[in-house]
């Protein structure tokens, strides 16, 4: 996940970021009668093109991992470059600038770079790919906040990060999805909720808010364990167990009370 965050330039911190280990999500989804739904699919603008600019030349089964914001990202996997670029040409895309970037006038500013191992994309009026080509030391993966939240989340197959808000009581937060088992009926999912607070007092308040929600909303969050770190900009962590009857992603799709408990207005 941290390597994937290294693809996004620092400007991406103003947006929400979604990371997905697509391979693992496929396996996890086999344990749920209705699959994982949107939690098992890459986010970002590429998923919202009907039809996609590459036609039938790229299928989701070829994607192994993704990192997306609302306007830029990277899909990793195994791609047929000739087939994808042929479809881009037929749909009006042309190579520009470095002869590796494909753009189409009037297509909402979508630009793409295609290789056998990855597709990088960005949406802007200039056809720039700077959002997914950060200079050394200037990526989200280089920022301490993302490093610490990534460490807090641990081994997750999906993570959804809020925008970085250094001026607010909570600087950065994220929800991760962790599977205890994959490919088995009734697989249990655990959701990890992590945040970085501006100081210990804020961290203690955040933890108190989270514990209050767990108690007040019982049995929705029963079994949740909240821990608080110490020191400069401490990390608060909540581990929320699901049951096999619950589809992963409820903390960001339906049961959003924990997110609301750390909103700026709550401090």
Describe what you observe in this structure.
This protein has 267 residues and is an alpha+beta fold. The protein is 21% helix and 25% strand. Strands 4-5-6-7-3-2-1-8-9-10-12-11 form a 12-stranded antiparallel beta sheet, sandwiched between helices. The longest helix has 17 residues, at 200-216. It is globular, with a radius of gyration of 20 Å. The two termini are 30 Å apart. The model has no long low-confidence stretch (mean pLDDT 89).
Count up the helices. 7
Structural class: alpha+beta
Largest sheet: 12 strands, antiparallel
Instruction: State the distance separating the first and last CA atoms.
Output: 30 Å
Percent of residues in β-strands: 25-35%
Work out the number of β strands: 12
Radius of gyration: 20 Å
Low-confidence segments, ≥5 residues, pLDDT <50? Answer: none
What's the average pLDDT?
Answer: 89
Q: Classify the helix fraction into a percent range.
A: 10-25%
Write out the strand line-up for the largest beta sheet, numbering strands in chain order. Answer: 4-5-6-7-3-2-1-8-9-10-12-11
Global shape: globular
Following the backbone from N to C, one meets helices and strands in this order, namely: HEHEEHEEEEHEEEHEEHH
């Amino acid at each position: 996940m941290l390597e994937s965050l290294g693809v996004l330039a620092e400007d991406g911190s103003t947006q929400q970021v979604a990371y997905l280990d697509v391979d693992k999500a496929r396996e996890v989804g086999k344990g749920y009668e209705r699959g994982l739904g949107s939690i098992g699919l890459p986010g970002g603008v590429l998923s919202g093109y009907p039809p996609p600019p590459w036609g039938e030349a790229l299928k989701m089964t070829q994607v192994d991992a993704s990192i997306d914001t609302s306007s830029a990202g990277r899909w990793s996997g195994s791609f047929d470059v000739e087939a994808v670029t042929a479809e881009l040409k037929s749909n009006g895309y042309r190579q520009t600038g470095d002869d590796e970037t494909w753009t189409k006038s009037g297509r909402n500013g979508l630009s793409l770079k295609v290789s056998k191992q990855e597709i990088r994309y960005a949406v802007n009026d200039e056809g720039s790919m700077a959002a997914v080509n950060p200079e050394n030391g200037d990526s989200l993966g280089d920022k301490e906040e993302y490093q610490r939240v990534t460490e807090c989340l641990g081994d997750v197959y999906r993570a959804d990060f809020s925008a970085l808000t250094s001026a607010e009581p909570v600087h950065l937060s994220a929800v991760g999805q962790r599977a205890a088992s994959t490919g088995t009926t009734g697989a249990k999912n655990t959701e990890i909720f992590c945040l970085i607070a501006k100081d210990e007092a804020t961290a203690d308040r955040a933890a108190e808010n989270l514990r209050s929600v767990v108690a007040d909303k019982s049995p929705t969050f029963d079994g949740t364990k909240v821990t608080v770190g110490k020191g400069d900009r401490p990390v608060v962590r909540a581990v929320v167990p699901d049951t096999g009857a619950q589809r992963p992603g409820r903390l960001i799709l339906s049961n959003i009370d924990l997110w609301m408990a750390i909103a700026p207005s709550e401090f």
